[in-house]
Structure formats: structure tokens, C-alpha cells
Amino acid sequence: xxxxxxxxxxxxxxxxxxxxxxxxxxxxxxxxxxxxxxxxxxxxxxxxxxxxxxxxxxxxxxxxxxxxxxxxxxxxxxxxxxxxxxxxxxxxxxxxxxxxxxxxxxxxxxxxxxxxxxxxxxxxxxxxxxxxxxxxxxxxxxxxxxxxxxxxxxxxxxxxxxxxxxxxxxxxxxxxxxxxxxxxxxxxxxxxxxxxxxxxxxxxxxxxxxxxxxxxxxxxxxxxxxxxxxxxxxxxxxxxxxxxxxxxxxxxxxxxxxxxxxxxxxxxxxxxxxxxxxxxxxxxxxxxxxxxxxxxxxxxxxxxxxxxxx
Length: 310
Fold this sequence. Notes:
The protein has about 300 residues and is mainly alpha-helical. It has helices spanning about 5-35, 60-80, 100-110, 115-125, 130-145, 150-160, 165-175, 185-195, 200-210, 215-250, 260, and strands at about 275, 280, 290, 295-300. It contains eleven helices and four strands. The protein has a two-stranded antiparallel ribbon. Strands 3-4 form a two-stranded antiparallel sheet. The radius of gyration is 24 Å and the shape is elongated.
């Protein structure tokens, strides 16, 4: 290709990239200049639907898709930092992250094979909007039928929503893909026998921590594993509190009073209770447990939903 031909390709591409960058920069300037709005109106619509550039971006769709994906990470991170109070990992609607799905949708429209965007959405969207989570996951497997990991993430989404039959069907289909992990067959059986158990949940998140290629997925999975460990610990603490009350006719004055008993309790997987430097009983994340003396039950500083059944 001659020099003139090269220029004919490079120049339009440069104009498109520069124009997109200008629009993004302008929208950010407008965003930073506008007056504060109530929480429900804090997000503006996307300044530009980048997916409309598909086919016209002269091969730069991947770069623009990267921008949308990185913006989704930044966007959610800003929401978490600004949020006051504790967050429930299983219900992130309090963050009002209504632009997360459009950002991920744009990224995957521009690059239908953007595995990281699909996996990030699978971990977060079920706690925000289940329908959006299913839509993005279904889009991922449709565009990448040979990627068994995307079937794992879609199966995970159905599992999170309590639809164990659909989860089993997706895991089974993914298990038939050449090179897929034996974990997929394991989950197919688990969904049909004990889909809502903590054992299944621990296997699900443990596999993601060990084998996922996406750091965002590993971080989220570790948080869920800590949550499961906390549920086991609180079950054990509550049992000790009940026994203590029956024996002494009163609730313990504080959790420190039952520490000598707790250190003899066997937790799943060989774990033990932990205390901080001030001898406060702490959860797996290092957050001190609280004692609700009115109910004579342990309480967590972190909001959590009802535990799965054993």
C-alpha cells in the first residue's frame, strides 16, 4: 500500500479517535461543572453511545471498548467510595449504579469477545438488576459459544437468582465444550441436588478465586468467601450464646465472656476464631462482631442477607 493509501486510512481513524476523545472530555467537563443533584438524579445519561461507532471506527473499536470497560470500573468504585454506611454484597441497589449496565453493554457491543466485561457484569449485576445480568450473560455465550468460562458466569448468575434448574442447564451445556473444567460437571450435579447450600457456594467462589483470569472476579469472590466464613462463625457464636444463657440464666455480658468457650469450637475447614489487639472477636474481614443483648445473638457490622441453608 502506498503512502497516500496509508494516509487515507490513518487520517479518518485519527479523526474518529480525536472526536470521541473530545466528546468524552467535554462530557467530563460538563459533569464536573454542574451543580449537585439529589442521589436519584446523580447520574447523567451516557454522553455518547459508543456502540454506534461499530463498523465506522476503522478498527479502533477495541480501544473504545476498553475505555467503556475501564469507565465501568471507575464508575462503580466512585459509587462505593461515596456511599455512606455498610453495603450488602448481595444487594447493591443502594448505590444506584444505573449506568453500569449501559457502560458494559457499550463495551461488549464494540467488542463482542470482551470476556472481562462479561465476567465483571456477572459478578455485580445480579445484585443490581437480575434481568440485566441475564441479558449480558446470554449475550456473552451467544457471541462466544466456545468460551466455557462465560457459561460458568451465566450459570453463576442463575444460581445467584435461585433458579437452580436453569443454572444446571447452563453448566451442563458449558461442560460439553472442549477443554472445559471438570468443575462444570460438578456444578451441574450440585445445582440439581443442593443448589442453595453453603457447600455449593463455597465451591463456586473458591473455583473463581483459584482459576479465574479476571482480577475483578477474584476480588469479588474472595469477599463472598469471607461472607460465608462469617455466616459459619455467627452460627457457632449463637449456639454458644444459647448454651450460656440456658446454663447461667442470663445472656453473656459481652462476647469476651464466651471467648474461652469459642476457642474450643471447631469451625469448618479447620478455621478458628480470631481476636484483634484489644481482644475483640472479629469476622474474617477483621471487623469486630457485636452482641445484640436484647436478642442474645451476635450481630455483624456488615449488612448481610439471610444465609443459605446448610
